[in-house]
């Protein structure tokens, strides 16, 4: 058995290969493209031994992982922060990082992350692309509002981008180049609306066949768009052994600082997919108005005050929803409100 450490950067992939005794077998650097990876696999294949490899999680790591696995390698993607914790370095270079990853692979200490299959990756890409379009549309609308404020024009209509709002915008006297900027922004908003509608139609069609989405839509605050996003970010709920594991994966739990009699809670860990965390917070904002959660949500707000109360109450509710989602998807049951439980306070 050979063990390869792969350190990826923008322009090259540093490779260090060890044998079972920890002796260096090969040391090289290649381009992180398909042709170079094929050449790398052919070169290492001359040793006639199977290869286990490790590469840190970063942009491009999945391409390297998928390509080398097609050539028979067993590649694990390592959590970068955990890998550094296992092997802190006094000097850090790409070659040293590759050697460290090879050694972790040889000792079976790679802190591997779960890698979704291509189908789950495609689901995530669809949901994330829609979200990026929505955020771009929002930034354009905010820019239009800022332009009107700059020239002292109030906005008496509730929807500036509806029929009445468009008539108002057409009647305002805005000097150049701001008038052209405003017209271009409106055109882009319309184009984005069409693209978002197309994305939502695709997500709705695919969400109808997803085993998780119909169940998630029974949760207060979750519609089919958020349901599809959450389902895509979860992937397989079976990889979480308990609701605590799943809630920890969302990054909505506070950091714990504990030493002797000292026990403090810090800020949120924010581990796991940021899109899953965003979706749960969005769902909590709506679920806070639901009778099942409203009283407790308002109590937390009053207890912690105006400055922090609403944010922490929303995070607490998002954790409750995450726990409920684990039970629902594990048991394949629709949502049922749980009784009181112990709370973590961020």
Characteristics of this structure?
12 helices, 346 residues, 55% helix, 5-stranded mixed sheet, Nucleotidyltransferase, domain 5, two-stranded antiparallel sheet, 13% strand
Overall description:
By secondary structure, the protein is of the alpha/beta class. It folds into 3 domains: 2-106, Nucleotidyltransferase, domain 5 (2-Layer Sandwich), CATH 3.30.420.140; 118-209; 224-331, no CATH class. 55% of the residues lie in helices and 13% in strands. It has helices at 34-45, 61-70, 80-86, 94-106, 118-150, 163-171, 178-207, 213-216, 224-234, 243-250, 274-287, 291-331; strands at residues 2-8, 13-18, 24-30, 51-56, 74-78, 254-259, 262-268. Strands 3-2-1-4-5 form a 5-stranded mixed β-sheet. It has a two-stranded antiparallel ribbon with strand order 6-7. Helix 7 crosses helix 9 (224-234). The protein starts with a strand and ends in a 15-residue tail after the last helix.
Write the layout of secondary structure elements.
Blueprint: E1 2-8, E2 13-18, E3 24-30, H1 34-45, E4 51-56, H2 61-70, E5 74-78, H3 80-86, H4 94-106, H5 118-150, H6 163-171, H7 178-207, H8 213-216, H9 224-234, H10 243-250, E6 254-259, E7 262-268, H11 274-287, H12 291-331
Parallel strand pairs: 1-4, 4-5
Antiparallel strand pairs: 1-2, 2-3, 6-7
């Amino acid at each position: 058995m050979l063990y390869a450490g792969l350190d990826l950067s923008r322009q090259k992939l540093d490779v260090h290969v060890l044998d079972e005794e920890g002796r260096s077998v090969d040391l090289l650097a290649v381009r992180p493209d398909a042709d170079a990876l094929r050449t790398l696999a052919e070169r290492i294949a001359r040793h006639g031994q199977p290869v286990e490899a490790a590469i840190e999680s970063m942009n491009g790591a999945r391409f390297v992982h998928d390509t080398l696995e097609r050539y028979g390698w067993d590649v694990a993607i390592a959590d970068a922060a955990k890998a550094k914790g296992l092997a802190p370095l006094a000097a850090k270079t790409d070659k040293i990082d590759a050697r460290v990853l090879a050694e972790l692979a040889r000792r079976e200490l790679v802190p591997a992350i779960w890698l979704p299959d291509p189908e789950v990756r495609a689901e995530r890409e669809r949901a994330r692309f829609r979200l990026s379009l929505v955020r771009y549309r929002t930034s354009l609308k905010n820019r239009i509002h800022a332009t009107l404020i700059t020239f002292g024009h109030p906005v008496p209509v509730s929807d500036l981008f509806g029929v009445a709002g468009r008539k108002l915008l057409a009647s305002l006297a805005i000097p150049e180049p701001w008038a052209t900027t405003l017209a271009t922004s409106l055109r882009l908003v319309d184009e984005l609306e069409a693209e978002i509608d197309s994305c939502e139609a695709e997500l709705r069609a695919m969400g109808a066949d997803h085993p998780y989405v119909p169940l998630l839509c029974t949760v207060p605050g979750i519609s089919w768009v958020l349901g599809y996003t959450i389902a895509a970010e979860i992937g397989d709920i079976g990889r979480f052994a308990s609701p605590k594991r799943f809630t920890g994966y969302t990054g909505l739990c506070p950091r714990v600082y504990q030493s002797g009699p000292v026990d403090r809670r810090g800020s949120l860990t924010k581990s796991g997919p940021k899109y899953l965390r965003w979706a749960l917070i969005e769902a909590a904002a709506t679920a806070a108005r639901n009778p099942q959660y409203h009283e407790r949500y308002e109590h937390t707000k009053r207890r912690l005050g105006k400055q922090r109360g609403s944010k922490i109450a929303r995070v607490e509710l998002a954790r409750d929803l995450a726990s409920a989602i684990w039970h629902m998807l594990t048991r394949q049951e629709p949502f049922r409100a749980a009784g009181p439980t112990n709370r973590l306070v961020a």
